[in-house]
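pasting for ref. prot 1 ->
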Amino acid sequence: MAKHRLTSTPKTHYLARVILGTTIALSGGVIAAPAFADTPEQTSATVQNASAGTAKTSLQTAAERLPKVSAQQILDIASRQIGVSENAQGGGTKFQSWYMSTERARETTARDGGRIQDYANAPWCAMFVSWVGEQAGIRPTMGWDAYTVTHAKWFKENGHWGTAPKPGAVVYFDWQGSKDIDGIDHVGFVKQDNGNGTITTIEGNTGNGKVEQRVRPTSQVVGYGYPVYS
């Protein structure tokens, strides 16, 4: 199946459109369990936005039952994957293999159509982010999905979305420079804000299908999702 390949930017990640050939159907409100958490309580409606500081969000409540993980620990896990590359078919990574083994893969194929086997050679930038969260034991506050748009909307609907490039934040890109979540092409982790209109990132499925450290202009950023870190 064809995948977009660009010489100077990562392959776009419209999994449902490119790989599965369907349109994503999104329900309103916070995504219900078991999509991202282990129990329905972990995905109950957000009480208040995290920035309000007056009440806990559902993700903050979920984090109380999880290992204490810092942003630097997440970046260390991601950094150790730098150099991992896909095969000539666009697959063969441990991130795709892991995702195919999860209950989430069965949920997303039911949602989007297609077969679990389609993920074997699918664009894997969101699978990489999801895998890192799983390795750290914070899946309920990192989320997991193979489709960047759905993943970004989950952060927003749970009150963990914003415009500040914090280290460890999940960063979503639109190569056309829009701020529209539905236009998201790609996802990775923020390593640092360079203070000059660029950020340093760690991304999967970038360049020629590898995990790489990159420098990106913030003009291409749609927004940031904020996992709960210690």
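and prot 2 ->
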Amino acid sequence: MHFEEAYQIIRDHIAAQELDEARKVLGEFQPADIAEFVENLPVHEIGPILNLLSPETAGEVINQLDAELAGDVLSDMGEEKTGAIIDEMYSDDVADILGEMTDPEKDKILSLMGQEDAIEVRELLEFKEDTAGGIMTTEYVAILQNITAERAIQVIRETAPDAETVYYVYVINDKNQLVGVISLRELIIANPKTLIEDIMHHKVKSVNVHMDQEEVAAMVAKYDFLAIPVVDDDQSLMGIITVDDVIDVIHEEASEDIYRLAGTAEVDFEDALWKRIWMAVRNRLPWLLVTLLGGFLAGGIIRGLEKEIQTVVALSYFIPLLTGMGGNVGTQSSTLAVRGLATGQIDAGKMLKTVGTAALIGIGVGLICGLIVTVMAFLWQKSLLLGLVVGISLCVNMITASTMGTFVPLVLKRFGVDPAVASAPFISTTIDITGLLIYAGLSSVFIKWLV
């Protein structure tokens, strides 16, 4: 049974005050399935469903919702139920929700929490949401380096129920500085009397609390961690970032890069219609104006070819071919470069090697496509020289496009600018202009032999 079908049954049970029956039907579904359906309901209809669930399960459902919607749902529910749900949620998830609320709403939710939990959430709210501190959780397991394995297991039994994960156990010194890590498996099989500092791994990969979330995600992906510790400038352990949060970051950053590559930005479909329209116009217009300006410049170059085109009309036949092929190659190269930088597959520090590789690729595809165009133009117009002019222009244009499509994102990255801003409209417009300049130059040089 789909949840959509079950929802009507649940509503009927609620209307008849048959709450136990409604809970039985609801219990057949996972929190993620419930969240997927209720996120399309009005806020006032979500509360009655969550009231049927245990606080722990309700917290899992709310955690699956958009942070803004989750905040609205909690604000709509009674204080007692809201407090019970919040108590079952991890601090980083609560902080994400509160980040979308007004200050009075935040204070109301925080007042329902225990003092220690509220302090943890307030501390998380101090960090920027796109940094390691903004996505970390403070519920983790840490042990001192000078205790035995037997004592460490006792500590874990006491603290693990409140921790988000216990795959890794982090080791600290008396100053709360991160000094090592040990897996739960290694701890269990260790001699009970062995000191932790004698069996722990001393080389620990960690991230600074102010590191950008995209860099954190790349690091976790590189080393296949299930969690990574977060430290401050003094190496004090602040929290951990778990792989589920990293997956969210990867999804968020990938979506952002895709939108930027298209020369636009993400629009929140939950906003009012007029706001969505205004945001879409505001985000797209600058890049469209760049394209428009490029079109005028390209038109000016073609106008400069007026004499040559009037003399050899066939020159105009190949202009769409040159601009189209160059733009495609440039867009392909910039997309691969931006994606490679985002995943760490391309090192911005090795610019010459990366750009050189792109140039060689451009030479390869340029020579093949240039040769094909030369032959086709000769067969079509019965002029070998015209075919050579078009073929050489296309070849040089594709080499330039491949090189620039890779070079621009690398330069932006080197100067600390998000390379995704090197979007398709910018790259393709630039390549159109350079391609036409190359074509115009060759045509002008060989015009007297083309007549």
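The chain has 22 helices and six strands.
Residues 273-304 form the longest helix (32 residues).
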